[in-house]
Write a structure and sequence with these properties.
With about 475 residues, the chain is α/β, with parallel strands linked by helices. It is about 35% helix and about 15% strand. The chain has helices spanning about 5-20, 45, 55-65, 85-90, 135-160, 235-240, 265-280, 290-295, 325-335, 345-350, 355-365, 375-380, 390-405, 420-430, 455-460; strands spanning about 25-30, 35-40, 75-80, 95-100, 125-130, 165, 185, 195-200, 215-220, 240-245, 255, 285-290, 305-315, 410-415, 440. The chain is elongated.
Length: about 475
């Protein structure tokens, strides 16, 4: 038998893993041309994080030979070994490792790093990759494709779609650049009335003793969604903090009511308040831009004890007792005249550094006219008069920020924003108690988080 024959035996073990719900990775150990042990992935079945196919096979081989040293043995495995398994192979002093598919995320035999080429180690194991790579890779791809389909079906059954709403197909969000996070959904908040709301929730601390973890609550505006914060989220997570980034109803992966009339200032605010309560968010640093600020700046006064900081970018309060900025009025007029405006083109015009794929990601939630009710409804929703929906709440919020705010504030301004640029933000700065001089990004436009990595880095050192 040759390498291909032994890899076929490893593939049989991988298929056996599928049968019990495990990720399809299989392995065999060969001693002097004879198979002496087999293994398949079993972390779920055994409640054992070390039960990778390679480890299972190595344990069985050691028992078969009565020796933890496997000097004259070869390991055949369908997926490139991770660091744990590579270390075990080297400790066991195997003669050779042969793997099928490369693992670009955790592979420790050349993809992410190569533990087998470390000459400082006291044992070197021969390495060969790519044997039946396509067959091994296809088995994994098919498995995860089926798992995603099952998860989508479970989500559909758990969150049935209302007759008066639309839901952007999951396929529209596959492969978006820089957005690897798993979705979270809920539909049982009273204000949602059965609509499904999507949110990111990353970095949740499981250490009940820890009390210093911040929660960065990132609220997007129109016509964006949580994708807006993809450059800031990794910085917050790397600093050990939690990030929650919801998609407002009508945006992103959240459900989209068919009628423009669904949308109201007070309705969206109520949903956000209920989300904060449901997730029991504490030590919040409120991160806002555009409509994220129009709504978000009215939240802390409802529960000041939950909020520790404010990171505010190109937004305003819609108090209704002052004229709306000229730039915003021009934006609102453009939206009224061109309700089907190209979202990707809009993003590209203000962010020339972005790739075409990144700009297209902003259009992904809105495949047709029916999905765009929120984009049409939000511009005229900005409170323009004292009796407008949300105006009284915004005036109360203004008083809160002027007189009662006790947290830290970091302001960042995109200087090239023609809608909510420096004049608007300077006025807001004067409204917020103890707001220091803002960080001005000379090349940034309205969508400031697109240049948000340095802002996020500043934030993790600023908020303590």
């Amino acid at each position: 038998m040759d390498d291909t024959d032994f890899m076929q035996l490893a593939l049989a073990q991988a298929r056996a893993a599928i049968a019990v719900g495990e990720v399809p990775v299989g392995a065999v150990v060969v001693h002097q041309g004879r198979v002496i042990a087999t293994g398949r992935n079993a972390p779920i079945d055994g409640h054992d994080p070390t039960a990778h196919a390679e480890i299972v096979a190595l344990r069985a081989a050691a028992q078969a030979l009565g020796n933890y040293r496997l000097d004259d043995c070869e390991l055949f495995v369908t997926l490139e070994p991770c660091a744990m398994c590579s270390g075990a192979v080297l400790h066991a002093r195997l003669k050779r490792v042969v793997f099928g598919a490369a693992d670009p995320k955790t592979g420790a035999a050349g993809s992410v790093l190569n533990l087998f080429d470390q000459t400082q180690l006291n044992h070197q194991t021969q390495l060969r990759g790519g044997v039946l790579a396509q067959e091994c890779s296809s088995l994994l791809q098919d498995f995860f494709r089926q798992r995603r389909a099952e998860q989508r079906e479970e989500s559909r059954l758990a969150h049935p779609l209302r007759d008066d709403a639309l839901r952007t197909p999951d396929a529209a969000f596959e492969g978006l650049p820089g957005y690897p996070w798993q979705p979270n959904y809920l539909s049982d908040l009273p204000a949602l009335a059965g609509l499904r709301m999507h949110y990111l929730d990353e970095g949740t601390s499981t250490d009940s003793v820890r009390t210093d973890q911040l929660t960065y609550l990132c609220l997007h505006g129109n016509p964006s969604w949580s994708y807006l914060y993809r450059k800031m989220v990794p910085v917050f997570l790397a600093a050990g903090h939690r990030v929650v980034a919801p998609d407002l109803i009508g945006f992103g992966k959240s459900d989209k009511p068919k009628k423009d009339s669904f949308h109201s200032f007070s309705g969206h605010r109520r949903i956000l308040l209920e989300l904060v309560e449901r997730l029991d968010l504490q030590n919040i640093v409120l991160v806002v831009q555009d409509w994220g600020g129009l709504l978000g700046l009215t939240l802390p006064m409802a529960a000041p004890e939950r909020y520790k900081g404010l990171l505010v970018m190109n937004t305003m309060l819609g108090t209704g007792d002052a004229p709306l900025p000229a730039g915003f009025l021009a934006w609102r007029e453009m939206c009224a005249k061109n309700p089907e405006f190209d979202v990707a083109r809009l993003i590209a015009r203000g962010n020339p550094q972005l790739s075409a794929q990144e700009c297209a990601a902003y259009s992904a939630p809105f495949p047709d006219k029916g999905h765009r009710a929120a984009l049409r409804a939000f511009p005229p929703m900005v409170p323009a008069f004292e009796d407008s929906d949300g105006a009284a709440l915004s005036r109360q919020a203004r008083d809160f920020w002027r007189e009662r705010w006790a947290g830290q504030t970091l302001m960042a301004i995109g200087a090239q924003d023609p809608v909510l640029g420096p004049p608007v933000m300077q006025a807001l700065q004067k409204t917020i108690k103890n707001c220091p001089e803002p960080l001005v990004l000379a090349q940034a436009g309205h969508f400031v988080p697109e240049q948000g990595e340095p802002i996020a880095q500043r934030a993790v050192h600023f908020f303590k």
